[in-house]
Write a structure and sequence with these properties.
Blueprint lengths: L1 H46 L19 H7 L2 H41 L6 H7 L5 H14 L11 H21 L2 H33 L4 H60 L1
């Protein structure tokens, strides 16, 4: 009887234990999420570093397809073409600057000649009022010299009026020639620079395609880079030609206005010379 009671008590104890285990497990699981943030927050707070100042780094990437690569990878033909274009550009800008300065100087000399020469008491006095080395003093001295030295067997069949006119006209033409010096170079650069650049492009593409064919790789990076470098030659040729053409047209127009003032001074000078001879 005692054994039976012990067995029954043990069975009841085991059943109670089995019933209580699920409830304890669920309670432990419910309390675990609440404790986990608290325990995780403490190490996180302790391990959080102090905020650092933001730093920016500028990354520079070398361009493997620019002018530097074009010069480094080009052969003597490509380099020679590029040097020719650079020299043509330098010459064009030099002529543009110098001819603009000369045109402005002659325009100022024309105003000074109108204001001083024809108001002088005599021709010699008027010449002295003109700037030394100016175009208008050169024309005035040539006309006066021709009027005063119309003698000799070779010129006896030419009347004085024609002789003075020819001398003054020659001096005007010399001034015109001096103004137009360099314009032919601008015209040449404007008409040939695009074709020189195109030649450089064709040569560069030929070399690029040859290298690609030898390497056996026709990917976009193998094609776009060399072809793009070759096309730079055309862009450089246009950059050289456009200022030369614009400068040529502008200087031609400006020289025309300047020469009109020179011719007007020469015509008035011729009239003064003829009047001075008649007064004698």
């Amino acid at each position: 009887m005692t054994n039976r009671l012990s067995s029954m008590f043990a069975a009841l104890t085991l059943a109670a234990t089995l019933v209580a285990l699920p409830h304890a497990a669920s309670a432990q699981a419910a309390s675990a999420p609440e404790a986990a943030p608290a325990t995780a927050a403490a190490p996180a707070a302790a391990a959080a570093p102090a905020p650092l100042a933001a730093t920016t780094h500028k990354e520079t990437v070398d361009n493997p397809y620019g002018l530097q690569a074009l010069w480094a990878q080009g052969d003597f033909v490509a380099k020679g073409t590029l040097i020719i274009l650079v020299l043509m550009s330098l010459g064009s800008w030099y002529i543009l600057v110098t001819k603009l300065y000369e045109s402005i100087k002659i325009a100022n000399e024309a105003k000074n000649a109108r204001a001083t020469f024809f108001k002088a008491g005599s021709l010699q006095e008027g010449v002295k009022k003109l700037k030394e080395g100016s175009a208008f003093r050169f024309i005035a001295e040539t006309g006066i010299d021709a009027g005063e030295h119309h003698e000799g067997a070779l010129t006896e069949n030419i009347d004085r009026n024609t002789w003075v006119t020819m001398s003054v006209q020659r001096s005007v033409e010399e001034v015109q020639s001096r103004l137009q010096d360099g314009l032919a170079f601008l015209a040449t650069v404007g008409s040939t620079a695009p074709f020189i650049g195109l030649f450089g492009t064709v040569w560069g593409i030929l070399n690029a395609l040859t290298a690609i064919g030898i390497a056996g790789q026709a990917s976009i990076d193998k094609v776009a880079g060399p072809v793009g470098e070759a096309l730079l030659m055309t862009a450089i040729g246009l950059a050289v030609a456009v200022p030369a053409v614009l400068g040529y047209n502008w200087l031609v127009r400006r020289n025309k206005v300047t020469l009109d003032s020179v011719r007007g001074f020469a015509a008035d000078l011729h009239g003064v010379l003829m009047g001075a001879k008649a007064a004698r």
